[in-house]
Amino acid sequence: AQKITQTQPGMFVQEKEAVTLDCTYDTSDPSYGLFWYKQPSSGEMIFLIYQGSYDQQNATEGRYSLNFQKARKSANLVISASQLGDSAMYFCAMRVVGGATNKLIFGTGTLLAVQP
Amino acid sequence: DSGVTQTPKHLITATGQRVTLRCSPRSGDLSVYWYQQSLDQGLQFLIQYYNGEERAKGNILERFSAQQFPDLHSELNLSSLELGDSALYFCASSDAGGSYNEQFFGPGTRLTVL
To answer: Which of A12, A62, B94, B104 lies 20 to 30 A from B31 at CA?
Structure first.
């Protein structure tokens, strides 16, 4: 069965420091995609970054990077130079490529609080 | 702004009632997904439509139903509402031909059942 696990319910980080949010996944399919979404207190889901299972390089998008370790089945999100506006809930999600649906399977999320 | 619109933004109703949530996908997106976010269940996939046809079902209750219309907007119907149906309901859309089928989420409809 496909599953996403986020073991950190909440984290604190000082402003301007880097922080790593953990995500491990489980799938037997060889082709899949991994996503990170941010959900601020206002509720909307904001796409941050994507990593495909066959991508050779770790994905980066501005201050966000994804530390993809395929053998360990982990896809940790690294936020560099944290800002107060980064305080939010962060969700890791997986999509299995192929088959009839592109549904996303989400983890339980990590609540990040950035302190001044 | 993701380009996905959802109405209404908030909905307060009573147990036993029926409500309809509406979603308009991004221009050109053929797939619409519905997700429910609740405190006890987290974020879970309910149902997907592709170009008017049901594509996949997740943990959707029999009291819930959905459809996608010829103009590609979608509606999620929730009936015989219970307190436990209180949740944030998201609609997302994707372009089937996209490079990685990123799903763009709407702002959500927050349903409160009293």
So the answer is: A62
Q: Which residues contact B88 (CB under 8 A, 6 or more apart)?
A: A43, B36, B37, B38, B108, B109, B110, B111
Q: Which of B56, B88, B110 sits opposite A101 (nearest CB)?
A: B56
| Chain segment A21-50, per-residue pLDDT in tens | 999 999 988 889 999 999 999 999 999 999
Peptide bond before residue A9 is cis, with ω within 30 degrees of 0: no
Look at residues B104, B84, B9, B97 and name the one whose alpha carbon lies nearest to residue B39.
B84
* pLDDT tens digits, A72-103: 999 999 999 999 999 999 999 998 766 667 78
How much is the pLDDT for B13? 97
Chain A residues 74-103 with CB within 8 Å of chain B: 91, 95, 100-103
C-alpha B43/C-alpha B105 separation (Å) is 13
Compute how many other C-beta atoms are within 10 angstroms of the C-beta atom of residue B98: 14
Is B42 in contact with A101 (Cβ distance < 8 A)?
no
Task: Give the three-class secondary structure for A32.
Answer: strand
Q: What is the DSSP letter of B102?
A: P
Better pLDDT: A4 or B40: A4
Give A47's contacts in chain B (Cβ within 8 Å).
102-105
Average pLDDT over residues B4-16: 97
Q: Which residues in A lie closer than 8 A to residue B8 (C-beta atoms)?
A: none
Q: Which of A44, A47, A100 sits opposite B102 (nearest CB)?
A: A47
User: Is the pLDDT at B99 greater than 60, yes or no?
Assistant: no
